[in-house]
What we know:
Elements: H1 6-9, E1 34-39, E2 43-47, E3 54-59, E4 63-71, E5 74-79, E6 85-90, E7 94-100, H2 112-115, E8 116-120, E9 128-131, E10 145-151, E11 162-170, E12 174-181, E13 186-190, E14 205-209
Antiparallel strand pairs: 1-4, 1-7, 2-3, 2-6, 4-5, 5-6, 8-12, 9-12, 10-11, 12-13, 13-14
Amino acid sequence: MLRRTQALILGLATTAAVAVVPLVAGQEPSADAAVRKHVTTDYTLLRRAPHSYVIGTAYRNWTVDVHGDQNSGYRWGRIYGDVNSCLWIYSGAVAGDASSGDSCGAATSLPTSTFTNGQIGGSTDDGATVATVAGASCRTWDGSHITGYGNVRPWQATATPSSTVNGRVAIGQTVLWRYVSRDGKWVMIRDQRAGGTDGSGQQSWYFIPRSCLPAHLPG
């Protein structure tokens, strides 16, 4: 079972450049071919760069084709499941050594302009506190707690939710909002009531509808 500190989960450094570290003992060599692996934890957060913004989630047994070397404990690769995009994934959450074709190209950091509408809350390491509201499109899974989603593909012109998360946030309770998706309809939040690990238990970072938050979002 993978356990990591909450500080690592909340590592949202906004550095735009991504430098691939030199090859060291125990790392797989860079090559044109990718290495096919599978997620071995209940879930793992997907990021726009190592230790940066969370932009999705991969779940147990999902296929991942990793490319190149590790960078600060993360691997650049194509995430399958319901994402099918090239993102950064925690290297300790995947295992396997089958060969696969290169489908991502050189590792990169996704600019925030590609997956947000420009609204970003909080500091460099967490979101900003805001109380949830019962907006028109805000749904609950048990009559009181908000239904969230592990993925919406926030970089798309029209985001599509998938991987339902039965969150622990009741209408009226607070969350930490991080950013609004490119289409303005979804918000990445951190649920303080969820677990402090990336890999087991209730995930703390996920998307909720924009209508679950007030019109004005505090910075």
